[in-house]
């Protein structure tokens, strides 16, 4: 296994990405990453998403974040107290050259979902230059019976019973915030 490890710096970057993702998915939990006796990342755990964004990405990014609006009047019936999309998206003036800054969580669990990330990117269409990607921290709440978490051994990938509704509501919310 040792031969499959990258350099110490690359492995630290991977750990940093995971800790940062969990820190944004669970702002009510305090996280701290220390490497070589130096603190690399720290979140307060006070439950405020904007504060967690500031702790992880810095004050400049936190100031440029826009809050997602609640469900609209034309939202599908599933978009109720049982189905909620909340979070923050970056103003088009702050973007990145890779997709690492799109953080999704479902029921408090950090996930990776290409289709939902694509929904966010589509919502930004016309706002960002080519090969630029948004900063987004999205928290999705769905009934536990509407997701399957046993898709991937690390539990970072999930399946939705009604993914098209989640996709549409996420895209609507991001576009409304922009």
Quaternary structure of the protein: single chain
Q: List the strand order in the largest sheet.
A: 3-4-9-6-7
Q: What is the average of the pLDDT values?
A: 89
Q: Could you tell me how far the N terminus lies from the C terminus, measured between alpha carbons in angstroms?
A: 45 Å
Rg value:
17 Å
**Global morphology:** globular
Return the structural class.
alpha+beta
Give the beta-strand count: 11
Helix segment tally: 5
Strand content: 15-25%
Give a quick account of the main beta sheet: strands, pairing sense, barrel closure: 5 strands, mixed
Low-pLDDT stretches:
none
Describe the structure.
- With 178 residues, the protein is of the alpha+beta class.
- It contains five helices and eleven strands; from the N terminus they run αββααβββββαββββα.
- The protein has helices spanning 8-25, 49-57, 59-63, 114-123, 163-177, and strands spanning 32-35, 38-42, 65-67, 84-90, 95-96, 102-106, 109-111, 133-134, 136-141, 147-148, 159-160.
- Strands 3-4-9-6-7 form a five-stranded mixed beta sheet, sandwiched between helices. Strands 1-2 form a two-stranded antiparallel sheet. A two-stranded antiparallel ribbon has the order 5-8.
């Amino acid at each position: 296994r040792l031969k499959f490890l990258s350099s110490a710096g690359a492995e630290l970057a991977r750990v940093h990405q995971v800790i940062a993702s969990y820190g944004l998915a669970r702002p009510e939990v305090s996280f701290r990453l220390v490497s070589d006796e130096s603190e690399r990342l720290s979140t307060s755990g006070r439950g405020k998403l904007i504060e967690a964004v500031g702790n992880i990405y810095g004050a400049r990014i936190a100031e440029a974040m826009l809050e997602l609006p609640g469900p609209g009047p034309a939202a599908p019936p599933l978009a109720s107290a049982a189905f909620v999309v909340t979070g923050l998206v970056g103003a088009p003036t702050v973007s990145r050259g890779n997709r690492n800054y799109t953080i999704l969580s479902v029921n408090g669990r950090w996930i990776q979902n290409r289709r939902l990330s694509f929904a966010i990117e589509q919502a930004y269409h016309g706002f960002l230059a080519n090969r630029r990607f948004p900063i987004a921290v999205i928290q999705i709440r769905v009934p536990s019976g509407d997701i399957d978490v046993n898709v991937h051994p690390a539990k970072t990938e999930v399946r939705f019973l009604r993914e098209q509704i989640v996709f549409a509501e996420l895209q609507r919310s991001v576009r409304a915030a922009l």
